[in-house]
Write a structure and sequence with these properties.
Blueprint: H1 2-18, H2 20-26, H3 32-38, E1 57-61, H4 63-67, H5 72-81, H6 87-98, E2 104-108, E3 111-116, E4 119-134, E5 140-148, E6 158-162, E7 174-179, H7 183-187, E8 195-198, H8 203-211
Antiparallel strand pairs: 1-2, 1-8, 2-3, 3-4, 4-5, 5-6, 6-7, 7-8
Helix pairs in contact: 5-6
C-alpha cells in the first residue's frame, strides 16, 4: 500500500505542477440547466450516476480559513443578502457546517486518502448510487454515495458527496459527509458538511470563489 500511496502523491503532484487539475476543474462553463440544478431546481429524471473520478484531485478543507477570519467577507455578504440573519449567526452556521479535523483529502483510482495531521487513512471506495433529497426550503440536492469495503481501514466506511452537480462532470468544490454507521444515518446529517476546494488554490482564490458562488 505504501508504494501505491507514494505513486499517488507523485501522480497528483505532477498534475498540480502542470496545472492540468486546476484547468480541468474550472474550465467548464455551466449551462442554464446546470446553473438551475446548482441552485436546487431540477427534475429527478435528470439526475445521473457519477464515478468517484469526478472528485479526483487533492483537496483542502476551508475550515482553517473560517477559524482565521479569512472568510469573514463571505459571511458579511451572506448576512447582507439575508436580512433574517446577522453576521454572527451566519458565521456560526458555517462554523458548524465546515467543522472537521480532516485537513485534506486525496482521491485517485477510486482510492480516497484522509489526512489528519500526520495520520493518513485510505481505502478503495465503491459506488452505492445516489440519493435525491428535498430540503425544508423546497430546494433539492443530490448526494453521491460511496462505501469502503476494507473492514481493517481507518478511513470512514461511508462517504457522501454533495457539490451542486447532478450528472457526470468534474467537481470544482464539494461538501462531504463521513461516518461509520450507515448511509441512512448520514443522509439525516444536515448541519455538518465539511467543505473542500482544490489544494492548489490560494486562500484569496477560495474567498474570491465563495464571494461569487
Amino acid at each position: 500500500m505504501a508504494g501505491h500511496i507514494g505513486k499517488f502523491a507523485i501522480t497528483l503532484g505532477a498534475l498540480l505542477v502542470s496545472g492540468q487539475l486546476y484547468a480541468h476543474s474550472h474550465g467548464h462553463q455551466m449551462t442554464e440547466a446546470e446553473q438551475k440544478a446548482a441552485n436546487g431546481v431540477f427534475d429527478d429524471k435528470d439526475v445521473k450516476d457519477r464515478p468517484l473520478s469526478n472528485w479526483d484531485g487533492v483537496w483542502q478543507s476551508v475550515y482553517p480559513f473560517l477559524l482565521s477570519g479569512d472568510l469573514d467577507p463571505v459571511f458579511k455578504k451572506k448576512a447582507e443578502k439575508d436580512n433574517s440573519k446577522t453576521f454572527d449567526q451566519v458565521k456560526a452556521y458555517y462554523r458548524t457546517g465546515y467543522a472537521t479535523d480532516v485537513e485534506s483529502i486525496g482521491i485517485e483510482n477510486n482510492v480516497m486518502e484522509f489526512h489528519r495531521g500526520k495520520n493518513v487513512a485510505s481505502c478503495e471506495y465503491v459506488s452505492s448510487g445516489y440519493k435525491i433529497l428535498t430540503y425544508a426550503s423546497g430546494k433539492k440536492g443530490v448526494r453521491y454515495l460511496f462505501e469502503c469495503k476494507d473492514a481493517s481501514s481507518q478511513a470512514p466506511k461511508f462517504v457522501q458527496f454533495s457539490d451542486h452537480i447532478i450528472g457526470p462532470r468534474q467537481s470544482s468544490h464539494f461538501h462531504i459527509f463521513m461516518g461509520n454507521t450507515s448511509h441512512e444515518a448520514l443522509l439525516k446529517e444536515m448541519d455538518n458538511w465539511p467543505t473542500y476546494y482544490p489544494n492548489e488554490m490560494y486562500k484569496e482564490q477560495v474567498v474570491e470563489e465563495m464571494l461569487h458562488h
